[in-house]
Amino acid sequence: MPVNNTGNGETYCALADHVAKLVQDKFAALTDNLTSQYARRKVLAGMVMTRGDDLINSRVLCVAAGTKCINGEYLSDQGMSVNDFHAEILTRRATLRFLYSQLELVATMDPSAKEESIFEEAEKGYRLKQGVKFHLYISTAPCGDSRIFSPHGSRQGEENEGGDKHPNRKARGQLRTKIESGEGTIPVKATVSVQTWDGVIQGERLLTMSCSDKIARWNLLGIQGSQD
Questions:
Q1: What is each CA distance from 175 to 20, 164, 172, in whole angstroms?
Q2: 123 annotated active-site
Q3: pLDDT one-digit tens code per residue, 133-151
Q4: Are 29 and 23 in contact (CB under 8 A)?
């Protein structure tokens, strides 16, 4: 299934549908066609890698399901617990493991391993080979602003009726934190003090950035967490 990058909506819709089907089919295969006890989920996410314009070369790197984060009392300073169990966050963590494995291949002295890797040597470090792209699929809008202010939730013509009519419009664009061991997000107050380990252990609410805010950060800094 080749795709021509002409920039038209049909092309992007075809790509989106293809990515969604790959992730959903992989999840079904991993859960015995959705009959396994692990098939129950509210949010499904996955990462698909494509190489070039031909979608036949697509590869599902990972799939994940989840909607909650931990309570502060379960924090671990030894890496024994995962703080954020939302599906898209787990998908990023799994994708990073894949990227590290590909870096190990290109860093070896074995020519065949270098050829297999999706990275190639550059003037400064390494870079993705031409045509390699990653596509994040999420079965629902990410928690935070993306879910609360979904464009599908606005009434047609509302923008021409005196501006934004959303009842929570004053909370748009604010950083939001996830509810501990639950679902949903709330705005982070400007007066909130810096979160500390001691404070959380003593009972302060654990602040975990919403998925919408995290994805916005990835778009700016990259999913690898670059600080440049």
A1: 28, 19, 9
A2: no
A3: 999 999 999 999 888 876 6
A4: no
